[in-house]
Design a protein that fits this description.
The structure holds 2 protein chains of 2 kinds. Chain A is of the alpha/beta class. Helices cover 37% and strands 29% of the residues of chain A. Chain B has helices at residues 2-18, 20-29, 32-44, 49-66, 70-80, 83-88, 94-122, 132-158, 166-180, 192-200, 208-215, 221-251. The chains are: A alpha/beta, B mainly alpha.
Chain lengths: 326, 257
């Protein structure tokens, strides 16, 4: 069940509203519109079973793209095939093999327990009793839902609700899953749980997953491949590691020493910070072995740490590159 | 299909009892306006007191059985973006609304009927004698009326794909409907020209028509013409709704992240 996107475009007509009394009044009679190109000529292919991260700042066009893939939005131009279907045709077979989770929106019925939504989904997606029980048991166990099933949705915490949202979206065993900010607003512990669950689910069920997130941790933990989008354009499609190496040809080298010697650190690399008992350097990738060997020989080093620069930095650089190119 | 409805009805039933108080307040609150209007007319024509009591009692019943709140729900769901989940599910969202209507109206029915029976013991004006045919025609007209009002309200709700505050426009139509549906006064009390116009507009078939059957103010061919009118509007709004649905989906901006 693959996803195939070719030269996808989406334009919106946005009603322009001016601030201020007279302008607000004027807009009652004369409406001004502005054409916004939310998605411009995006093409990519996601093979069956792959989990791909979709990155971009707010307003980059990620959600718009996902909404087109899920059949919610009608593309202005271009072609989409999701599991062989054209999403916007709204075929029941298409809807039964995919699922959408939006971190900011709830599909659970607000004033009654999540179990009620599960039962409604069971009927709507025509899930067999036995399959339903099996799937539900599995999800309840993996996501630790047992105590939540009978509480009204509105009384659940955000993290508890999100876990129930995931369960509601997976009951019909979709082959393709769109996750739009599934960990937004969650605490670090719950984020980690949700992340682990998504990874495990993908491995065990070979579900094709397209994931957007603001948290780099989600993407680095789950996806080898990323799509980077900004201002509606696809800037990068490929391996996350390759991107990191290409954009940040250095690593962060962290030394822990009892006494920090006063030496010209800049001969080894770019000095990032000197703290009490700790030095951080930005060292070109090819010089890492040589530099670390020298340190270990010359100083009494307690600990030596070599790390890739934080993903945030890589992505920021990717966005900058993209805007230079355009 | 039937199974899906059973599940939706059960869920809506559970949901309804989650808002017990709201449901009761809302049910009784809607009776205030017709009761006041009734008192006004009784004061103007004291000699016809009984007729007005009967008319407005039937009106309260018909109004509750045909009432439509879907425009408010749809507007909120489209504006807040939760409607997206209804679109991605493989079951038309209108079925959720129909199931909800069934559940609430069934509740009104089982509450209003015994209340009527008890009141009739004390208020002679509420006692009536109807032929079986009249009862059947009334029920048929009532179901068609509920369907027209529902489709009208739901179609308006779908306009939410284009306009953000559809309920404002809907409110205007409700105000017109107040006069032309027989809610402010029996249609027979309106000026002849307005009476004539009301025959060709949908509002009479949403409320007034079933009441006229029960009060006996229309008979024979008038009832038949009434059904022709009602069915035409029913068909009209069915077509309008399905066109709006198709066009609306294309227009949909699926707002919100």
């Amino acid at each position: 069940m693959s996803i195939e996107v070719q030269q996808l475009n989406k334009q919106f007509q946005i009603h322009v509203r001016q601030a201020g009394w007279t302008d607000a009044l004027r807009s009652l009679f004369k409406r001004e519109y502005r054409l916004v190109e939310a998605v411009k000529d995006i093409s990519f292919h996601i093979p069956s079973g792959e989990i791909v991260g979709f990155l971009g700042p707010n307003g980059a066009g990620k959600t718009t793209t996902i909404k087109m893939l899920a059949g919610l939005l009608h593309p202005t131009a271009g072609q989409i095939r999701v599991g062989g279907y054209v999403p916007f045709e709204q075929k029941a077979e298409f809807k039964k093999m995919m699922s959408l989770v939006m971190g900011q929106k709830s599909q659970l019925i607000w004033d009654i327990p999540p179990m009620e939504t599960f039962l409604v989904n069971k009927a709507i997606y025509e899930i067999e009793e036995r399959t339903f029980r099996q799937t539900l048991d599995e999800l309840v166990e993996l996501l630790e839902l047992e105590p939540l099933l009978t509480k009204p949705t509105r009384s659940l915490s955000l993290g508890q609700r999100m876990k129930c949202e995931l369960a509601a979206a997976l009951l019909h065993r979709p082959k393709i899953l769109f996750l739009d900010e599934p960990t937004i607003g969650l605490d670090v512990h719950t984020q980690e749980k949700v992340r682990q669950f998504i990874g495990k689910y993908n491995r065990e069920h070979k579900t094709t997953i397209l994931l957007t997130s603001h948290y780099m941790g989600d993407v680095t933990a789950l996806c080898d491949r990323v799509l980077i989008i900004n201002h509606g354009k696809l800037l990068y499609d490929g391996d996350l590691k390759v991107l990191t190496e290409k954009l940040t040809p250095y690593k962060l080298l962290e030394l822990r020493l009892p006494d920090v010697p006063n030496i010209p650190w800049n001969t080894y690399g770019e000095l990032v910070a000197v703290e009490e008992g700790k030095v951080t350097l930005r060292v070109p990738r090819e010089r890492i072995p040589e530099v670390s060997a020298q340190f270990l020989q010359q100083f009494e080093v307690h600990d030596l740490n070599i790390e890739d620069p934080p993903m945030e930095e890589v992505i920021t650089l990717a966005f900058q590159e993209g805007s230079h190119a355009s | 299909m039937l199974h899906k409805y059973v599940v939706l009805l059960r869920m809506k039933y559970v949901e309804m009892f989650a808002y017990q108080l709201a449901t009761i307040v809302w049910m009784t609150g809607a009776m205030v306006q017709p009761l006041i209007t009734m008192l006004v007319w009784m004061n103007i024509y004291p000699e016809q007191e009984e007729a007005f009591i009967f008319y407005f009692a039937v009106l309260i019943f018909v109004e509750r059985m045909t009432s439509a709140w879907d425009v408010w729900e749809l507007e909120r769901e489209i504006r807040e973006g939760t409607f997206s989940y209804q679109i991605v599910r493989p079951f038309h969202p209108i079925h959720w609304a129909i199931a909800e209507n069934f559940v609430y109206k069934a509740l009104f029915f089982v509450i209003l009927l015994p209340v009527w029976g008890i009141l009739a013991v004390f208020v002679p004006a509420l006692r009536f004698q109807l032929s079986t045919l009249q009862v059947l025609l009334f029920l048929a007209a009532l179901i068609v009326a509920a369907a027209i009002r529902f489709l009208f309200s739901y179609s308006f709700g779908l306009l939410g794909f284009w306009i953000t505050k559809v309920t404002a426009v809907y409110g205007m139509f409700e105000a017109i409907s107040l006069f032309l549906s027989g809610r402010i006064a029996p249609l027979s009390l309106l000026p002849p020209l307005i009476q004539k116009i009301s025959l060709y507009l949908p509002f009479r078939y949403m409320i007034g028509f079933p009441i006229e059957i029960v009060t006996g103010s229309i008979q024979g061919t008038a009832v038949m013409y009434g059904f022709v009118g009602a069915m035409s509007w029913l068909l009209f709004f069915m077509i309008v709704l399905s066109l709006l649905w198709k066009a609306g989906l294309k227009k949909n901006q699926a707002v919100g992240g």
